[in-house]
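My current task is to audit a protein record that another person submitted. I need someone to confirm that the token line plausibly describes how this chain folds. Take the sequence as given and treat only the tokens as open to question. This is what I was given:
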Amino acid sequence: MVNRYDLNLDIQFERNNIITYKIVRKGDYVIHLRSFQGGFAFSDKLGVCSPAYTILRPNSLLEFGYLSYYFMSYRFIKSLIIVTYGIRDGRSINVEEWLNMKIVIPSKEHQLHILKVLKSVEEKIKNEETYATCLSNQRKYLLHHMFI
């Protein structure tokens, strides 16, 4: 989830309709039934969203943010085949069928371990990308000054 102002888009909305918007809390999962319009998102901020979205509030069995990674996993995406419909213009998710799907959620300790590993890998990738950018800038600088 992102703030409207961070999108650099002029998104119009009726201020009178804001009362129909849904409150999104930090830690909620926001799901749009038309997966091509955003699909599944994790919110790390407080805000509101369109009534077209479904808000899921995790219970105490879930570690903060765990499902954000699960929703991006190959296993989860493949499981959506049985609850998605539509062609050409995108896929629609049948929310009733989706909510009735059976999945295995590991213990909170295992979820926490998975989160730590994935965040560590993400941080390593971010550091390596920064390092690659620095090397590229250094190369440009050296090549530029080589022929002065």
About this structure: Strands lie at 22-24, 29-32, 40-42, 47-49, 53-56, 84-85, 92-93. The mean pLDDT is 83. Residues 108-146 form the longest helix (39 residues). The helical segments are 66-70, 74-79, 95-99, 108-146.
